[in-house]
Every structure is written in structure tokens, then in C-alpha cells.
Amino acid sequence: MIGVGPGLWLADGPVIRFWGMPFPTRMVVVRLADGGLWLHSPVAANPELVAEVAALGPVRHLIAPNWVHYAFLPEWQALFPEAKAWAAAGVKERAARRGVRIRWDADLALDARPVWAEEIDLYEVRGHPQHREWVFLHWASRSLIVTDLLQALEPDRMTRREALTARLLAGTRPGGAMPRLMRLGFALSPGALGRAVWHMLNWRPERLIYAHGPLPTKPGEEALRRAFRQVAPKGSGMR
Fold it and tell me: Against a cut of 0.85, is the pTM above it?
């Protein structure tokens, strides 16, 4: 686990397989003003990582930011039963269909102002017929946190078959790109995606973080604009 900004750490988890490809995983840990920890998209809870996290403070919030990022929540919930599990649209149903037992405590869409919202702002990206994802801005570190909207998988590190699948379905551009398959869904509502990008640019992020692949080396706002260049508004994102 590495610290990358005031009160913010990144923890890379194990590589998992999804759509026949190897996906690196990443969790974001934020320490709130009250000392409690906010865990975005928890990765596998190996003992070393759990000890590092526990040394930072009590785990109070477990965030499932979209409908497919929930697999490791039960591990963290068992270790930290007082932590509150927050659900994005569709994740409760998907987890239940797959027999994954999670005690959901709150719905991101129904809680108009989570207790941590003064420190971590949030916005739901809509417009896709299936994929709904929450994005977050950690104010203290000016870090924009997305999950699957942007990816940077590395086909050169894959088998030929995996690389072909990655190029067809995933985001493989260095610095982050929206997966091809996801872009097709958002093409039905390009205005909704454009509004989401505008909202993220208005946050003026200094750092861009996503769950899969090497992170961009460019400053956050520039990296965001490059990643969404087909829908990003021209000019600078301003409040």
C-alpha cells in the first residue's frame, strides 16, 4: 500500500480474470477527518494488507461503486463488522444472483448526502443501459476516483488470445480509456456521458485514479480530458 496524497493510499490487489482476460485490481483507502477509513472497491483481504489498513484507523465505510465491484466486500465485512457497506445501482441484485452474501447498509443513490460527502464528493454516471457507476472526488488530495469507466490494460503482457479480447472489449490505451464495449452502450446517450465528463472536469482533479492498469503520469484534469477526448467539452473545466 502506498500513500499518494494527503489522507489517501492505494493498494494493488491480485490479478483476477474477467471476460477471459487478466485484470489487475486496485483499492483506494481514504482516512476521513474523524480517523475512520473509507475503502473504495476493496481488493482481496490478505493478512499483510489488512494489517496495513488497520494501522491507519478503523474501517468505517466499504464502497461498491458499480454493479460488478463487490467480490471482496464479504471478506472486509467479516473482518470489520461495524463498517457500513454502500451499494451502487444493480450490485445488490448481481451479488444475490451469484450467492455472494453481503449485508448492505446504505444505497448511494438513495442517501442524498452521505456522512463523508463533505470530504469525498460523488456523482452517478448514467446513460448506459446496464452500467451505472459512481465517481468520487477526494478534496484533500484533489483525486478523482473512477472504477471501470477508464482502464489501462496492457495487451503486451497477455497471451495472443487475451490481447485480442482486451483490444476488442477493454480499455488498453496508456493513461486510461473507456472500454470499447462500454462505449457502445453510452453511444445511446452521448449527452449523459458528456454531462458526467463536464461534472468531473469541474472538480478540477489533480490526480486520476482507476481500478485496472497503470495510472496516468499526466495531471488529473489533462489525463481525464485525454481519456474522454471524444466527449470532453473544449476549454477548461471550471466551476
Answer: yes
